[in-house]
Amino acid sequence: MIRTSLTLLLASLALATFAADKPNIVMIISDDQAWTDYGLMGHKQIATPNIDRLAKESLTFTRGYVPSSLCCPSLASIITGLYPHQHKITSNDPPIPAGMKPKGFQQSSAFKQGREKMIQFVEAVPTLPRLLMQNGYNTLQTGKWWLGDFKHGGFTHGMTKGGRHGDQGLDIGRKTMQPIYDFIAESKKADKPFFVWYAPMMPHDPHTPPAALFEKYSKLTDSPHVARYWAMCEWFDQTIGDLLKHLDEQGLTQNTIITYVSDNGWIQNPNAPRYADKSKQSQYDGGLRSPIMVRWPGKLAPKTSDTPVISLDFFPTLLKLAGIAAPKTPGVDLTDDAAVAARKVIQGECFTHNFVNMDEPATSLRWRWMLQGNMKVIVPGAAEKEAKPELYDVLADPFEEKNLATDKADVVRTMTAALDAWWTP
């Protein structure tokens, strides 16, 4: 009896020491928000005081990118540290059989079978929450999650049970923050470090902001659609403020790493409740660019950098900060200045909304893109047969209005060869 009690005491002490040695991690992932739509990025109307504060306290990269401008593949890349063609989740939904309409397809056996295959893809590769779980973490999924039950991603706790892009998980932020607060309390009680995936469907449509926020922004624009979107951005920022305040009140700020990125961009169409061209699903920075942040008070010195980075970098960065051996992935440690500076190119890929062939990523490919210095090349894939390569100087022309491909054909050839060396579809 004495030996058993001693064993339990030693085990408890070991767990407490383990928890104290491991940082908590909170990933904040905006949903459909353009890189321009923050105070820190110079927006004149949208108020984002909490994100701005986070940026000032973080290692902040103003020229961050995601590899793909569509929700599901972008989120899958964040959680695996792999490009879509590597983890194979290139699209939001499975292929639609010939002759079947989209609405009926989502109720069909073909849709269910395709979903099961997407789940198999994420189960076949290491994920950030699974690796953290294997090293003693409690891990929580909230918000957007396309890949079945939260457990398929390696989460110990979660809100999504299997709906197409989040079901109950989509209540987070819009209706409540309590599941996160309860999870944190449970983890504290168990003396376990925690990981939170906070990916609310915000500012993603439906744009249904609080009335007071809509009224505020209606005075700043003639478009009600733009006003609703701007109001959604501030509402999302308010939820981040609530989350940061809770961490402060629980005495967890100093030992909690916070990261920030948007899954893809959104430019609001002023004349309709939908996105404009050159944003979501596009090959342009309006769909691909996002500020990227990592905050760990007292451990990472705040700094703002305009060196391009990519959301795949979170995977090796967070595992290293947690003291966990990371499998080989394409990203680099964002806290390693030399590694970030040594990387000369950032590249990515955009695919069709629905898979064409789930076993062959190249069949769904719309575009490959590469950023090298100030030049960005865009090369069409199999799903864009009539398209031509594009080239932009994104520093001089950040909204990609002047295509330089004809004038600088040699640059297009050189950069395309580099893309082919990275991945030849």
Supply the helix-strand structural class. Answer: alpha/beta
Sequence stretches where pLDDT stays below 50 over 5 or more residues: 1-18
CATH 2nd-level architecture of the domain at 20-82 and 125-331: 3-Layer(aba) Sandwich
CATH fold node name of the domain at 20-82 and 125-331: Alkaline Phosphatase, subunit A
Order of helices and strands: HEHEHHHHHEEHEHHEHEEEHHEEEEH
Shape: globular
Overall strand count:
13
The top-level CATH class of the domain at 20-82 and 125-331 is: Alpha Beta
Cα-to-Cα separation, first versus last residue: 64 Å
| Major sheet description | 9 strands, mixed
What's the CATH H-level superfamily name of the domain at 20-82 and 125-331? Alkaline Phosphatase, subunit A
Total DSSP helices: 14
Helicity, in percent?
A: 25-40%
Descriptive account of the structure:
The chain has helices at 2-21, 49-56, 71-80, 84-87, 102-105, 109-123, 128-133, 178-189, 211-218, 224-249, 285-288, 314-321, 337-342, 409-422; strands at residues 24-30, 59-65, 138-143, 157-158, 194-199, 256-262, 289-295, 303-305, 309-310, 345-351, 365-372, 375-380, 390-393. With 425 residues, the protein is of the alpha/beta class. Strands 1, 2, 3, 4, 5, 6, 7, 8 and 9 form a nine-stranded mixed beta sheet that branches. A four-stranded antiparallel beta sheet has the order 10-11-12-13, with helices on one face. Mean pLDDT is 95; it is low at 1-18.
